[in-house]
């Protein structure tokens, strides 16, 4: 995207204000979603998402949301969180997007007529002295923030830090499945045979369960999944507060699908989806480790994908991170970018020296030593 020249007269009209308390954040909901409506395919711009994320993130840092007004009109939001972090024994403050591990994208949310003020807004954040390091994850390719950063005079880095696997649903299921290798198909059939030997196998959407029962199922499967060691499972207080709020809000808006795999009437695996503007976002996929030998996650993912093709959805975001089962199915990898900058504080300057000078030099010395030995 081509860099935008700043409109100084428009910038001079703006009022920028930090929101640091939850009450004011909740009161922004109507104006926030009015702004988000400029991006009708972006679920992760909705107030409901950040409301849910805050239930978890409030245990991780301080709310710090930048709001930008032109008179009484809210024209931009930058949803941020200020964290206390220790790195190499150095305590410092890091400013990040308001995210949780289930976040898949984030960005500046701004009214399109005000794009020419985007760099001005970003500069305002960079001049703030409350943080030592600014690290904004989950930027999509051609994000608004990357567009606005092109006109910055301050030092920063913008780099690809991971990739998200995606299935673009632009053909029928039979055509898509025909492109998959013999090994995948053989594994799927073997998995199906193992499950059917156990008894009746049913794929169902669990959203029709009573809400409390649905939450109990989500919590139980997560609690007994392999992710227990990550401390992000839903038997933990903060992650549960997040999924509870998201489930409540998504049910109200008819955004939620929770696909469950029942074997002999017992739910042994599930995948938690948000459906927004015909786009599917997989937030969590879990199965009971006691049933791992049956490969329930493999079967569930296979049958969910088949269903999404039959329903003619447009795109399936498989969730953060790459792994073997996602790589078997994805037909596109989307780059995820991170914007970073160091403040001119004492800690910010020290961190910059360590990360950009000392550590690279130590790596060179280590590499040379390995070559010599």
From TrEMBL:
Protein name: GNAT family N-acetyltransferase
Domain BioF2-like acetyltransferase, residue spans: 212-326
Transmembrane segments: none
Pfam families associated with the record: Acetyltransf_6
UniProt-listed InterPro entries: Acyl_CoA_acyltransferase (IPR016181), BioF2-like_GNAT_dom (IPR038740)
